[in-house]
Amino acid sequence: MPTRVAVLATLDTKGEEVSFLVAEITAAGAEARVVDVGLGETDVAAEVTADEVAASAGRSLVDVRRLPRDEAMAAMGDGAGRRLVEWHARSELDGVIAVGGNQGTAIAAMAMRQLPFGPAKLIVSTVASGNVRAYVGDSDIAMQFSVADLLGGPNAVTVDVLRKAAAAIVAMSGVAMSGVAASPDEGGRDTVAVTAFGNTEPAVVVAMSELRAGGFEVIPFHASGACGSAMERLVDEGRIGAVLDLTVHELLGELHPQDIYAPVRAGRLTAAGRRGAPQVVVPGGLEYFCFGGPDTIPPAYRDRPTHIHNPYNTNVRTTHAELEQVAHLMADRLNAALGPVAVLVPSLGWSYVGSPGQVLHDPEANSALVKVLEERLEPHIPLRVVEATINDEEFARAAATTLTDLVRRARRAPQGHQP
Q: Of 248, 346, 369, 393, whose CB has the highest number of CB atoms within 10 Å?
């Protein structure tokens, strides 16, 4: 069976580029499956026409053309994504490539984000050298800058870009997944996610070592907004069976979106609860907001203690009231969990820069979070306050051991047991 690659584009504007990609993909021994996501007329052949894409979204193409531009794009992205998901479910899809400008990139990204982690995803785009976070989200989409515009067919610049892109998607699509792909029966139960920051890395390193020694596959995720959301998605997909959430900074970003590490999807600290997966939660990285360089700090935050992490990242201290707010969010989400949960709080500091002697150390402000959790957490959720910093080795080992114990108890519990 040849490698099967879907080719997404607005054929009314990118027909010649698509024809070139199809020829290159076919010459490489793969099968190209063209999906038209355009709204205009075209004579370029497609396996899935724009009418069929619209129908997959529950609309007619005529109706979609009458919609405002953003709604029309969303409909085509939804319809194309549904077709990709169907092909993937039938093991008829190994990868996807798209070419486009701003609108074509948006439609293709909407479609690709519906696929799970694994199938190769590549977008050749005129906007790929800018901020592509909104397009990629928490998916494993690769972006390639087209350099010149994708208009009027391949030219002296884009022909080389497109040729390499075709070779890349065929090669990527032919690589079998390994490691994190769990079988449906196992549900990733021996795979543990650990969340990290540079300021919590010593704790993460020790905890990962402990968990690996206990026989777990361990995957670290940087709490940078996209990674935390990706972790939640992988838990929902059943690829991760337990979570050691040492760094929950993205909760702050969800409440205060000006933080540069705001999650790309709302709902941090919810997937493990939905799945009933064991989780240990630590307030790592909650002492501060993350902004860009010092000149990007919003005026309202500029009189607070600040740590310049690097020229492009500054940490600004959170207040008593802000930590009360995030504690209520934590309690709401953990109380709703269907599986075992434990909360560990290192009383001396939740990061390197929040530890004694460092500029963001403020135990009085931190106490606000502990007080709310003590009042709000359900009785079955243990809250343990440890006299240590998060990066003290004994605390990291205790966090890993606590998760290991939760996992073992969950495995011994009768099926359907609630915490």
A: 346
